[in-house]
Hints:
Largest sheet: 5 strands, antiparallel
Shape: globular
CATH topology of the largest domain: Uridine Diphospho-n-acetylenolpyruvylglucosamine Reductase, domain 3
CATH class of the largest domain: Alpha Beta
Helix content: 25-40%
Structural class: alpha+beta
Number of helices: 12
Order of helices and strands: EHEHEEEHHHHHHEEHEEEEEEEHHH
Number of domains: 3
Oligomer: single chain
Number of strands: 14
Amino acid sequence: xxxxxxxxxxxxxxxxxxxxxxxxxxxxxxxxxxxxxxxxxxxxxxxxxxxxxxxxxxxxxxxxxxxxxxxxxxxxxxxxxxxxxxxxxxxxxxxxxxxxxxxxxxxxxxxxxxxxxxxxxxxxxxxxxxxxxxxxxxxxxxxxxxxxxxxxxxxxxxxxxxxxxxxxxxxxxxxxxxxxxxxxxxxxxxxxxxxxxxxxxxxxxxxxxxxxxxxxxxxxxxxxxxxxxxxxxxxxxxxxxxxxxxxxxxxxxxxxxxxxxxxxxxxxxxxxxxxxxxxxxxxxxxx
Length: 287
């Protein structure tokens, strides 16, 4: 199906992009367009104006600050993340995830900001960014404001970005030397959707801080406080993975679809959470 007629602009600056977005109620940001263009072709979304940000240098940079903070521009593509020496130094897990997202065509066009701003419950990056405590810089008329990852993803296909704003960059704080990360997914196929996903961040041994985050089962990335409580204060070698799995997804009602029932997704969420914790404590390999 062909797209309905739509106006298109390619601004020369972030300020021009914000002006275009603020001046049109039906304006949407176009970055990689991997999901938006398909939605427009299917007439599943109605857009009056596409604001193309792909040539805005300010949004296309990756930088590693002296204190170890990693800043990834919203328009940075997955392949640029994969090839970045700064990402490799600061957060190699992100580099690994980017290198295995879907297929080569998507990796060449898809963007970090697009993945996060779409906030599809199946999106790859939101659970990781919540787990590591990332912050999101949002550009608006009054400059930049920062929102914690916990508050950025507000619901299915909804984020803290307001009308007339756009995501500027993702800020990853420096990770402590004794940080362990885990990221595990159960996928339909090597280059297909996930049925369940978990991201884990553990600090210290004994564990002083723990974040366990599930994806693919609810309206947004979901922290698991009961599972986190089972981890804090434990030596990594003494972690009971079965206990953590039992404490995961407590009180959650997962959605079902043509690929899996909600009950099956919940069961698999517990399994991938256990695997992600095992990876974070160093007893299982990278997903």
